[in-house]
Amino acid sequence: MWTIGLLKQNAWNSLKRYYWMGFLVCFVAAIASDSLNGSSGYFMLSTPAAGMLQQGRLMLFESDLDSAAAGALVFGSVYCITMVFALTLSMLIYAFLSNPVEAGKCAYFYNARNGDSNFAHTFGAFKSGRYMATVKIMFWRMLYTWLWSMLFIIPGLIKSLEYTLIPYLISENPNLSKERVFEISRRTMEGEKEKLFLLHLSFIGWYLLGILTCGVGLYFIMPYHQAAKAEFYACMRAKMIAQGITTEEELTGVPVY
Questions:
Q1: CA neighbours within 13 Å on the CB side: how many for 199?
Q2: CA–CA dist 111, 133 (Å, integer)
Q3: What is the distance between the alpha carbons of residues 28 and 41, in angstroms, rounded to a whole number?
Q4: Residue 253 phi/psi, 5° resolution?
Q5: How far apart are CA 74 and CA 175, in angstroms?
Q6: What is the pLDDT of residues 143-173, one digit of tens each?
Q7: pTM, rounded to two decimals
């Protein structure tokens, strides 16, 4: 039986061996994630569409009613097209860049706790034979979480916790089918979601402290949080094997004799 205190203590003891490499991994993953917002924001501000939007706004101030109506129509049409393009661009960047890096980050911290802190694990999902499999499953994870979040924030949060194990599972064996990955994560997380939420909640004090340093301190806290999540996966991994949800051979894709 795991406890929050035990997981965090184990994470801290393990992290001492590779903290600065873990810091670099988190920093790279944060950059990959930030590119999602940056790229769509850059498009909104720098493309010709931005100029057209400004034109639409100016036309609304014209005294002629017909011109104002036409301006409003132009503005509305261009705005909608621009937003759809920006959203599509963001989704593509998230699916093909941010998601694989997130899976790589999970792989790095899980392997680092076992003594293998090779930075290359961060980009392991980009290797031939692993990339598209990782992209596909991580995309479905993102989509399902988003759809549940559309119902209300609570269902989205619950599903987010339920899908926590997916990046770790596919980083071990990207050949697992989408249905099987979601099944393993769902069954293993039964009775664990509330405790995982409390584990995340236990880091709030650290993150508030990081915010007080103009956000810079957040980067120094992330390795600790990620190491704790890796400890959590190690516990869940033992649980899924002990309860017969999966096997070592299925998890790694390597026959066990």
A1: 26
A2: 20
A3: 20
A4: 75, 10
A5: 48
A6: 999 899 888 888 899 999 999 999 999 999 9
A7: 0.82
